[in-house]
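Hello,

Our lab assistant flagged a job as stuck in the queue for most of the afternoon. It eventually completed. Since we weren't sure the result was trustworthy after the delay, we are filing this so someone can double-check. Below is the sequence as submitted and the structure that was eventually returned. Let us know if re-running is recommended.
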Amino acid sequence: MDVVSVLLAITAIAIVSRLLRLARFYFRVMKIPSTALYGPYHWLEGHLPGAQDRQHHYYEVIPALSETERRIRRFMMGPLPLIVLSHPDTISVVLKTSTPKVKLSYGLLIPFIGDGLLISSGKKWARDRRLLTNAFHFNILKDYTPILHDACQVLIDKLHQHTQHAETQSVAFDFSNACCLLSLDVMLRCTMGVESNCQVEDSDYSKGVRRITELVFKRGVSAGCLMPDWLYFMTSDGGEMKRLCNMCHSFTHRIIADRKRKLADDGLLDDSPDTSYETQRKIVKGQVDFLDILLTVKDEDGMGMSEENIRDQVDTFLFEGHDTTSSCMRWLLYFLAKHPEIQQKCRLEAQASVGEDGFVRHSSLGQLTFITQCIKETLRHASPVPMMERELPEEMQLDNYTLPKGTDVDIDIFALHHNAALYPEPFKFWPERFSEEACERRDSHAFLGFSAGPRNCIGQVFAMNELRVAVSSLVSRFELRVDPSLPEPVFDDKVVMRSKPSIQLLVSAL
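-- returned structure --
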C-alpha cells in the first residue's frame, strides 16, 4: 500500500470516528424534550425565529412553562442543541463548577471585548480572576464613595435644571439615557481615573455600546450566529459592528496609553512581584483604581498582564460595569415611580442616612436595608442579564439525562426569577421578597442577580454600592412619577435587559 492510500485511509477513519462521536452526542442530547411554547421548528434556523419576539418570550412563553420544562428543556440554535435550565436544582449542579462560557454565543462578543474575564476560561480565567481580586478590595471600594457622590451630583444638577422651568413640569425626563451616562461616568471616574464630561455631552462610546449589543443580539437570534466572523463582517451589520468596535477600542486604548505614560513618567512601573494592597497603595501614592492594578499587578512568578490582556479587561469591565448597572438603575427608578408608597419608604430611609451634603456615607450604606431589598427585587424582576451560558467540560448528570462533554447549557435567569413556585405573583414588584427571613427560606440558587459559584460577578459589591448611592441621593431630593400619557415600558433585552420604549418619568424637586 502506497503512502497516499495510507493517508487517505487514516483520514477516512478520522472522519468516520468524528461522525460517530457527533452521532452519539446528538443521540443523547436529543432525548431531552423541547417545548411547543418555542413555536414551530425550522429545519435550518431551529427555534431561533420564535426567539426574536422578546415580549412574547417574556410575557407568554416563560409564565406557561411547566415544572418539568423549567428543570430542563432543549432549544435548537439552528441545527445546534442548547440545553436550557431555569430551576435551582439543575442550575446549581452546573454553577458549582467553573465551567467555561459557550463560545458560540459569548464568542459573538469577542470582536468587542476580546478574551477578558467574562469570556475567558481555564487557567487564563483562574489567573486573571486571582490577579483582579485586589481591584475590588474593601478599602478601594471605600475610596470610590466620594467619587460616586460627584458623579451623582452631575445628574442631580441636570434634574434640578429640568424642574426649575415651569414649562417642563409636565415633560418627562429620559432616565434610560441618563442612567446609562451616569454609570459610564462612574466607571470612568472610579475604575479608570478619568474625569469625563459624558453626562453633559452625550458619549459616542455609550451610544456605540448600545448599538453593538443590539447587533450582537440580532446576530445571536438569527442564522448569523452560525457565520464565521470573517463572513459576518462582509455583511452590512457586520461592517457596522466592526466600525463601532474600532471606535470603542480607540476610546479605551487611549485611556490605557495615557495612564501608562503617567505611571512611567512617575517611575512607578517596576518589576516588583509584590501585589499586596498596601504595596499597590504605595505605588500609586495613595489612590488605587482598577486600571492601576491592571498595569502593575504581578502573579507569583513576577509576571504581569500582557498588553492584549489589559486591553481586553478594560473593554470587558467598561462594557459590563456600565451597561448592566444602568439597566438595573433605570428599571428600579421606574418601579419606584410606579409604586409611590415604596418610593416614600425608600425616601424616609435615605433621608435618615444621608449626611449634611445629602449623600450617604460609605459607613452608612449597610443601613439602607429596604433600598437594598428594592435593588435585589429589580435584579430579579428586570434581570439585567436575562440568561448566561456554559459549556460542560465533562459529562454531567441532570435529572434523568446524561449530558455529554461539550454540551452547551443555557441558564435562563429571567425564567428562574419568574417561577411562581419560588416567587408568588412573579410579575409584581415586591421588595419584601428579599427580607432576611424570606431569603433564608429560598434555595441559594433561586436568585442569580450576580450569578453564583466560582464565576460569580467580581464587581457585585461595587455595583451595589453605586446603586445604593444613586437611588438614595435621587429619592431624597426628588419625587418620581409615571407619565400617564406615555406607553408602559416592557422588557426588551439586547444581550442586556432594556426597555421598550425608553423609561421617561415626571420629576418634581422636594
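-- support follow-up --
The delay was a queue issue, not a problem with the job. The result is valid. The longest strand covers residues 80-85. Residues 307-338 form the longest helix (32 residues).
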